[in-house]
Amino acid sequence: MLSIWWVWGAAALVLAILEVVVSGFVFLGFAIGAFLVAMLLLNLGLVLSLPLLLLIFAALSLVAWLILRQLFALPRGQVKRFHDDVND
């Protein structure tokens, strides 16, 4: 059942919507991973077992998260400094 490409596409859409609601780039890597699994299943027409699909999803999500972390990181040598306390 979970090897159907549109299930992974729907999961990617739900995770992307969840990323918009809960900011912080937490779910974006997972959404990209689910989308890439959906595209692999759609384009290649593979029928894979659930553990293998979850392994591919985890690997692609990790790679997407690492790339996003590099894209949205502060420039080298720059440090965030807070001069005001939130409670003031």
Please, could you describe this protein's structure?
The longest helix is centred in the C-terminal third of the chain and has 22 residues. The chain is mainly alpha-helical. It has 3 helices and no strands. 64% of the residues lie in helices and 0% in strands. This is NfeD-like C-terminal domain-containing protein. Keywords: Membrane, Transmembrane, Transmembrane helix. It comes from Marinibacterium profundimaris.
Structural features:
88 residues, transmembrane helix, 3 helices, single chain, mainly alpha
Write the layout of secondary structure elements.
Blueprint: H1 5-21, H2 28-44, H3 50-71
Helix pairs in contact: 1-2, 2-3
Please provide a brief summary of the model.
The chain has 88 residues and is mainly alpha-helical. It is built from three helices and no strands.
